[in-house]
Automatic annotation (TrEMBL):
Keywords: Carboxypeptidase, Hydrolase, Metal-binding, Metalloprotease, Protease, Zinc
SUPFAM superfamilies associated with the record: Metalloproteases ('zincins'), catalytic domain
Active site feature: E258 (proton donor/acceptor)
Cofactors that this protein relies on: Zn(2+)
Protein name from the UniProt record: Metal-dependent carboxypeptidase
Residue ranges that the Swiss-Prot or TrEMBL entry lists as coiled coil: none
Residue ranges of the TM segments: none
Function summary: Broad specificity carboxypetidase that releases amino acids sequentially from the C-terminus, including neutral, aromatic, polar and basic residues.
Family classification: Belongs to the peptidase M32 family.
């Protein structure tokens, strides 16, 4: 087993360096001085060069060839599956291209933040052209006869294809659009919250909610960033949020979303730390955790009843628990994906999927993206985008090169729908617990059925093992129709 031991030792060091690079990215988005952007880009590029060299080390191929896979247990075979896949992808990418992508996307992130704050697409466009050019080159290098976009999608959801995602979206869209039209056609508009909500108190309440949902503060922290995100794995998993003192739900539910990601990483079997199994199975599975924490649990009538009590105590919110439940689940054609209701959310993702697929395939150029976005938004949501920060500049994903990531949000919603169905069958006292702000049973169920396994199983197998049936979009759509038909009387 010497070859296997040597391979895992090499992988541990590579994973450790990758975590260091992730920490640099976290620092850039939370605490780094603005004037350090150019130097940070060089640092990221240099570290990516080191990582690429380790990932393409010829000895990896030699070790893989020398290992008798039949002598390994299920964990060992899963480790080899991940390492083989990573090695095959890394060796198809030129070292210079890998380093340039790291350098340019690091620089792009800072320029995007400036452009977003100034609502100035022109300021961002030159560097965005570079990002798109590099990601097209990466896709071409990895494609091996597949559609170029599939090569990027595979980085986030192994085995998924653009055609399979498009087929799923085509099946989902009619029911989502019909539900939205029924709701928007009623006169039962649900009011949102109004008033002033102190930012420091929002953060304190967010920390309380995160603690209830099992986030381990010994191995995590909460900071502010332009765009909420989760960073790290194992013993160091960090989350961020943003605060608007006129609208507290964005902060609270962003934290709950990121806690889903963070709790997943913290719950993975410690024996898998700094190995390929020490991270989530895929971004779709990861999103299933963040979305089920945020939506099926956090936006449920039972939990919002408890949350209303805390909002009344801390902010003086009035109107009653039922009105608060309606406000939390208010359906409206808003601009911002991260603040979208459950009915509209997947339509946001479908739009981004189509646009980014066209960008990678060369059917759409960066300079035409803003117009394409605005036209599509009017078609899908019935309102015109008022400014770029509410439109094409709102998300950090494209500036940092995460093409192929967006569809995993809806895939995560689909997985969450399946898990929610299985969870309710397994936990008959769920609503009674949530009404008391008690989530230990449900977070334990998710930890045992999904989270602790990390990358041991293939993504769809994770969900099937947890639920007892293969993933399908039907439970999600049934849940949405039942919830919102009752809420809006349609």
């Amino acid at each position: 087993m010497t070859a296997y031991d040597d391979l895992l030792a090499h992988e541990r060091e590579t994973q450790a360096l990758s975590q260091v690079m992730g920490r640099l990215g976290w620092d850039q988005e939370t605490m780094m001085p603005r004037g350090a952007a150019q130097q940070r880009a060089e640092e990221m590029g240099a570290l990516e060069t080191v990582l690429h060299a380790r990932r393409t080390e010829p000895r990896i191929g030699e070790w893989l060839n020398a290992i008798d896979e039949a002598a390994l247990d299920a964990v060992g075979r899963a480790q080899l599956r991940h390492i083989r896949r990573s090695y095959a992808r890394a060796t198809r990418l030129p070292r210079t291209l890998s380093a340039e992508i790291a350098h340019v996307t690091s620089r792009s992130q800072g320029i995007w933040a400036e452009a977003r704050a100034a609502d100035d697409v022109g300021h961002f466009l030159p560097v965005f052209r570079e990002v798109v050019r590099l990601k097209r080159e990466e896709a071409a290098a990895l494609a091996e006869g597949r559609e170029a976009y599939d090569a990027l999608l595979d980085d986030y959801e192994p085995g998924a294809t653009a055609d399979s995602i498009a087929g799923m979206f085509d099946r989902m869209r009619p029911r989502l659009v019909q539900l939205r039209e029924r709701i928007m056609g009623t006169e039962r508009g649900q009011p949102g919250l109004s008033g002033h909500f102190d930012g420091a108190i929002q953060i304190d309440l967010s920390r309380e909610i995160a603690t209830r949902f099992g986030y381990d503060w010994r191995h995590g922290r909460l900071d502010r960033s332009v765009h909420p995100f989760t960073s790290g794995s194992g013993a160091d998993v960090r989350i961020t949020t943003r605060v608007d003192e006129k609208e507290p739900l964005g902060c609270l539910y962003s934290v709950l979303h990121e806690v889903g990601h963070g709790a997943y990483e913290q719950a993975i079997d410690p024996a898998y730390a700094l190995t390929p199994l020490g991270e989530g199975a895929s971004m779709g599975v990861h999103e299933s955790q963040s979305r089920i924490y945020e939506n099926q649990l956090g936006r449920s009538r039972a939990f919002t009843g408890w949350l209303y009590g805390r909002m009344a105590d801390l902010f003086g919110v009035t109107g009653g628990a039922e009105a608060f439940y309606a406000a939390v689940n208010r359906v409206h054609a808003g601009f911002i994906r991260t603040e979208a209701d459950e009915v509209h959310y997947n339509l946001h993702i479908m739009m981004r999927f189509d646009l980014e697929r066209d960008l990678i395939l060369g059917k759409l150029e960066p300079e035409d993206l803003e117009e394409a976005w605005n036209v599509r938004f009017v078609t899908d949501f019935g309102v015109a985008v008022d400014r770029p920060s509410n439109g094409v500049l709102q998300d950090v994903h494209w500036p940092v090169g995460l093409f192929g990531y967006f569809p995993t949000y809806t895939l995560g919603n689909v997985y969450a729908g399946c898990l929610h169905l299985a969870m309710r069958a397994a936990l008959p006292s769920l609503d009674a617990d949530l009404a008391q702000g008690e989530v230990t049973a449900v977070t334990s169920w998710l930890r045992d059925t999904v989270q602790r396994h990390g990358g041991l199983y293939l993504p769809a197998d994770v969900i099937e093992h947890a639920c007892g049936f293969p993933p399908t979009e039907k439970p999600l759509l049934d849940y949405l129709e039942a919830k919102y038909s009752a809420l809006y009387g349609v």
